[in-house]
C-alpha cells in the first residue's frame, strides 16, 4: 500500500472540505462519505443514480467513482461549464478519451432534462475494458443518442500500441509514442487509430458544437489530425486537459488557428490563459471566434 505523508493527508482532507459539493451541503456530503467508507467501496459493483441525472454501473476501484458517489460530482467545475454550452437542439458533441462515458452520459441526461432534441453524441474509447463499461452505461440509461466507437484519435490512420494500466486506473490509458513511452502499464495492445478530419468527412459532419479532448498527453496528435476542422473553425468549443505531453505546442496550434484559450478555475469560472500558471494538469476551453 502506498504510504501517505502527514502533509499529503492534510492536503487531501482540505481538498474534501473546500470542494463546492461539501461546503454547499456539508451534512449530505458527510453522510455520503460515511456510506462510501463503511459500505460502498467494499462492494464488487455499484449501481447508483448520479446528480447529473443518469444511472451508472461501476467498479468502486475505478478512479473517480468514489468522488462521483460521495461528492455527487466529478470534475465539478468542468461539467458545470460543459452544461452551459448545451443550450440548443441539433447539437453535435464529441467525447475523445471518453473512458466510462461521464461527459457523454452527462450530455444525454442534460439534453433530455431540458428538451433539447436531435442531439448526437459520439464517444471514442479504444481501451476495450473502458469501452465495455461505457456501452453498459449507455444501455442501462437507454441513451440511444450516444454512439461509442472503439477507436483512438491521432494524427494518422493506422494501428498503434496502447498502454493499459492496472484495474481501476483505466482513465490513464494512453497511446505509446516516442514522446510518450510506456509507463505504469499492466499490459499493452494494438488499437486502431483514425483522424478526426477523416472520420468527420466520412460521417458528413461539418460542425462540432462541443468537443472534449482528454487523451493523456496525445492531444497534439489529435489536433494535428483535425487541422481541416480547425482551419474553418468547425470545432466551436473545445474542452481540453493540459499540463502533460506536448501541451505547449498544442496551445500554439490552437492559437495559430485563431482560438481563444481560457483556463477553468476550481469554482467553475474562466480566467485568461497564462502558461506560467500551469504547474500540474489543468483544464482549458478553446473557443472559435464565433463560439
In short:
The chain is an alpha/beta fold.
Task: Describe the structure in your own words.
The structure is a single chain. The chain is an alpha/beta fold and 291 residues long. The chain is built from eleven helices and 14 strands. It has helices at residues 6-17, 20-24, 26-38, 65-70, 76-84, 102-113, 128-141, 196-203, 219-224, 227-231, 247-256, and strands at 46-49, 55-58, 92-96, 120-124, 146-149, 152-153, 158-164, 174-175, 187-194, 208-213, 235-242, 260-264, 270-272, 282-287. An eight-stranded mixed sheet has the order 5-4-3-10-11-14-12-13, sandwiched between helices. A four-stranded mixed sheet has the order 6-9-7-8. Strands 1-2 form a two-stranded antiparallel sheet. A hairpin with a 5-residue loop joins strand 12 (260-264) and strand 13. The longest helix has 14 residues, at 128-141. The protein is globular, with a radius of gyration of 19 Å. 37% of the residues are buried.
Q: What is the helix content? A: 25-40%
Within the largest sheet, what's the order of strands? Answer: 5-4-3-10-11-14-12-13
Largest sheet: 8 strands, mixed
Radius of gyration (Å): 19 Å
Mean pLDDT: 87
How many β-strand runs?
A: 14
What fraction strand?
15-25%
SSE series: HHHEEHHEHEHEEEEEHEHHEHEEE
Query: Can you tell me the overall shape?
Result: globular
The number of helical segments is 11
Low-confidence stretches: none
Structural class: alpha/beta
Distance N to C terminus: 47 Å
Amino acid at each position: 500500500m502506498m504510504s501517505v505523508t502527514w502533509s499529503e493527508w492534510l492536503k487531501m482532507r482540505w481538498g474534501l472540505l473546500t470542494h463546492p459539493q461539501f461546503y454547499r451541503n456539508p451534512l449530505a456530503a458527510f453522510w455520503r462519505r460515511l456510506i462510501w467508507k463503511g459500505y460502498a467501496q467494499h462492494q464488487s459493483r455499484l449501481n447508483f443514480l448520479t446528480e447529473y441525472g443518469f444511472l451508472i454501473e461501476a467498479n468502486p476501484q475505478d478512479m473517480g467513482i468514489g468522488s462521483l458517489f460521495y461528492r455527487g460530482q466529478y470534475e465539478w467545475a468542468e461539467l458545470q461549464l460543459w452544461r452551459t454550452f448545451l443550450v440548443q437542439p441539433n447539437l453535435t458533441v464529441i467525447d475523445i478519451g471518453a473512458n466510462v462515458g461521464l461527459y457523454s452520459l452527462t450530455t444525454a441526461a442534460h439534453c433530455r432534462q431540458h428538451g433539447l432534441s436531435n442531439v448526437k453524441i459520439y464517444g471514442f474509447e479504444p481501451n476495450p475494458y473502458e469501452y465495455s463499461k461505457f456501452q453498459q452505461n449507455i444501455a442501462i440509461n437507454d441513451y440511444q443518442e450516444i454512439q461509442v466507437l472503439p477507436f483512438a484519435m491521432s494524427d494518422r490512420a493506422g494501428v498503434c500500441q496502447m498502454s493499459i494500466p492496472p484495474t481501476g486506473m483505466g482513465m490513464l490509458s494512453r497511446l505509446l509514442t516516442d514522446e510518450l513511452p510506456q509507463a505504469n502499464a499492466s499490459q499493452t495492445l494494438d488499437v486502431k487509430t483514425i483522424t478526426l478530419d477523416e472520420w468527420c468527412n466520412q460521417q458528413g459532419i461539418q460542425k462540432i458544437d462541443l468537443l472534449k479532448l482528454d487523451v493523456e498527453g496525445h492531444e497534439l496528435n489529435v489536433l494535428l489530425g483535425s487541422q481541416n476542422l480547425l482551419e474553418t473553425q468547425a470545432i466551436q468549443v473545445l474542452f481540453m486537459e493540459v499540463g502533460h505531453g506536448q501541451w505547449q505546442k498544442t496551445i500554439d496550434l490552437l492559437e495559430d488557428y485563431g482560438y481563444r484559450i481560457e483556463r477553468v478555475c476550481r469554482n467553475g469560472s474562466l480566467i485568461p490563459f497564462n502558461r506560467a500558471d500551469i504547474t500540474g494538469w489543468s483544464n482549458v476551453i478553446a473557443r472559435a471566434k464565433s463560439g
